[in-house]
Amino acid sequence: xxxxxxxxxxxxxxxxxxxxxxxxxxxxxxxxxxxxxxxxxxxxxxxxxxxxxxxxxxxxxxxx
Length: 64
Description:
The protein is mostly helical. It has one domain. The protein is about 80% helix and about 0% strand. The chain is built from four helices and no strands. The two termini are about 20 Å apart. The relative contact order is 0.15.
């Protein structure tokens, strides 16, 4: 888990849309498998990135 999460987080902010889409799917499946209780940290991280004003459009779409 500790190895996967940082790699997926980095991929969500990649400049290539296909990589962002694949990372989003992987994160969704991982969160579904872990359950809501174990995914709270990831959800909070995504929410924090969505509201940041200094993110590029591609980074914001990755967090979305």
